[in-house]
Amino acid sequence: ENKWGGLVSQGLGTSMLQMPNIVKNPKVWLPVILTSAVTGPISTCLFKLQMNGAPVSSGMGTCGFVGQIGMITGWFSPSDAALAQGASAITPGALEWLGLLLVSFVLPALLSWAFGILFRKIGWIKDGDLTLE
Questions:
Q1: Calpha distance 97→116 (Å, rounded)
Q2: Number of CB atoms found within 10 A of residue 12's CB
Q3: Which band of pLDDT confidence, cut at 50, 70 and 90, is reported for residue 54?
Q4: CB of 100 within 8 A of CB of 69?
Q5: 14 has a pLDDT exceeding 70
Q6: Is the dihedral of CA 80, 93, 109, 114 positive or negative?
Q7: Which residues contact 22 (CB under 8 A, 6 or more apart)?
Q8: How far is it, in rounded angstroms, from Cα 74 to Cα 22?
Q9: Could you tell me if 43 and 97 are in contact, meaning their C-beta atoms sit under 8 angstroms apart?
Q10: Per-residue pLDDT reduced to its tens digit, 75-103
């Protein structure tokens, strides 16, 4: 609904741009919540990804790539907090890079899109519900 400018500003900027729309219709948040419920366990259980970068990077997601930069930084130089928990530097292999790309970009894009279609079909999300003002 917001074309490329909206995609970039929400994907690389902040998803909080959608907050007014979420307040109007909380159901528009469901695709993102369900996507997180799927990708979280995949990242930790399947790919064994851990946030060993600066704790401030946790929970930032793709906002300025802070989450991804924190993950990569933690691979090579774990934070003091991570070191205190027994983390050590690693040389990431193909599985780590694949996991980071899949759970940060590919799966969220595909799953949010698919859940969005489902909720549009059942009438919980309508055209205009996600339009940025």
A1: 27
A2: 11
A3: confident
A4: no
A5: no
A6: negative
A7: 28, 29
A8: 33
A9: no
A10: 999 999 999 999 999 999 999 999 999 99
Cα 87 to Cα 75: distance, rounded to the nearest angstrom: 9
* Tokens encoding 96: 């780590």
pTM: 0.81
Output the six-digit token pair for 72. Answer: 């990569």
Q: Which of 58, 56, 21, 42 has the alpha carbon at shortest distance from 110?
A: 42
Q: Can you spell out the DSSP letters for the chain? A: --HHHHHHIIIII-GGGGHHHHHH-GGGGHHHHHHHHHHHHIIIIIS-----S-GGGTT-TTGGGHHHHHHHHHHHS--HHHHHTT-------HHHHHHHHIIIIIHHHHHHHHHHHHHHHTTSS-TTTT---
